[in-house]
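Case study 2.
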Amino acid sequence: MTATHPRAHAGAASTRTRVAAQTAFEARAILRNGEQLLVTVVVPVLALVGLVRVDALDVDTGGLSRIDFFAPGVLALAVMTSSFTSQAIASAFDRRNGVLRLLSTTPLGRGGLLAGKVLGVLVVEVVQVLVIGLAAVGLGWRPDARGVGLSLVAVLLGTAAFTSLALLVAGTLRAEAVLAVANLALLLLALAGGVVVPADRLPGALEHLAVLLPSGALGEAMRGAFQTGAVPAFSVVVLVGWTAALGWGAARLFRWH
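Prediction:
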């Protein structure tokens, strides 16, 4: 009698299936974590409401309504929280606990693992944009359809730059140090990096420095998309440049254990 073998043992899952499974895992890990959910969704929404509703904040909006002025910057801040802060902290602790080293030896491989992380960030950003966008609409925001399409370009460029930074930090520093560095960097960039408030509203040398930072470039790209219907070419160049430099650094310096 000839034995039959189940089809399930015929071969491993395809690369696409493995990456899709890792993407779903990465997205759930962030969205199910209360602390990460607070940073990625709740804080940006509260920041938007505060900036729009608190009249004590005297900011020159250049003739725009407060919601039109602040909404693009808050969306840029949300991209930073998911692609940089959350990703850096999660990857650093996965590295410390040996998860990255283990997964890199499975059929998923290092390339599949990194692809899953990046795609997981994009899934989280979709949730962020929907929640923050709906909150902004509730506050009176009526974005132009052209701006929505152009903002996707800015989001992808910003995600690439800040995910590269996250992996560079997570792959070179201890997990406890990453926790402090990532949160401190986010705070400094949010306050003085040209994200929520445009670089030309910052004092002194900060105005010239912010436009060269990935935070300032992302903020300007989002504001350009929604306020003028065009993403500034200089911002694109800055984001691509940072992505190339940080990506090279992460590839050379990242330690898997």
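The mean pLDDT is 89.
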